[in-house]
Amino acid sequence: MPRRDFSHSVVILIVTVTLVASLSALAWVVPNMFNVSIRQLESSRPPLAALELAGRDIYILEGCNTCHTQMIRHDAREIARYGGPSLPEHDVYEFPHLWGSKRTGPDLFRVGEKYSNQWHALHLKNPRQVVPESTMPSYPWLFTNRLDGEDVPAKMRVLRSLGIPYTDTDIDTARLAVRGKTEAEALIAYLQQLGLNRPAALSMETGVDSDTAESL
Prior knowledge:
Layout: H1 10-34, H2 36-42, H3 50-61, H4 76-82, H5 117-125, H6 152-161, H7 168-178, H8 183-193, H9 210-215
Helix pairs in contact: 3-8, 5-8, 6-7
């Protein structure tokens, strides 16, 4: 009779997988849970402003993270193209992280202020107008859909409970900072801060007013 290995026993297979997963969690996840405060001290990146936070939601909603990464690996070719590799303190306020796993388009880890607000607006409305070989779809509705900002304060409160240092003032002024802005303005605000180590007091305006954006 041929010998049976552990894969022929469902019980042993379940126990083995559980054991390996538990050991992996102990080695990788648990230590980082205790290092969050250290990472926050090491990070010079402030929490997202209200408009940027709304733009991050648009980024996720439109599936941008399925075609763009936000992580530079410790690889000489990537570092030569995009700059230094991503570090844990860069993502200390990311819930969830948006590292991505597929690069149909370029990595966006350091796209902030690489292009003007008007370039981003043109690119969202008609990508091939600025990048002729682009396969990215157009997003014209982002320039007509307006945000009311009603849900942003609640999101900030939840994120504060996860350790992001939003103040009461940040939360109280969030709705007004977002209300009336287009989804395009919010998304551009989010893109323009990626990779920047900005002082917390820096203006969060995109520089593209709603009427200008709609006319592009």
